[in-house]
Specification:
Blueprint: H1 2-19, H2 24-57, H3 67-72, H4 81-85
Helix pairs in contact: 1-2
């Protein structure tokens, strides 16, 4: 959440910088950076929503089940789920 706030503040700062840009090239570069940060912020917010969903479920992990079973309980939240579990989503 603190990262989201910092990213949003940076996006706002870039908007001001774009308006104050002295050249078109500088404004275009700043706009490109702002767009990139905006996409990253959207991705971070979506991840946060998914994380909150799984955190609210209070998923119990059993170390005796092994990595495949425990990893699969988190759906697509973790990287490369299919590689570890052999499935694209949790069972």
């Amino acid at each position: 959440v603190p990262l989201q706030s910092k990213m949003a503040a940076r996006i706002d700062s870039l908007a001001d910088d774009i308006e104050a840009a002295s050249s078109g090239a500088q404004a275009k570069r700043l706009q490109k950076e702002r767009d990139k940060l905006g996409k990253q912020l959207d991705e971070l917010r979506r991840f946060d929503e998914q994380l909150r969903h799984y955190a609210d479920q209070r998923i119990a992990l059993d170390l005796d089940d092994g990595v495949k079973v425990n990893y699969g309980k988190f759906g697509n939240l973790l990287a490369e789920v299919k590689t570890v579990t052999g499935k694209s989503e949790a069972a």
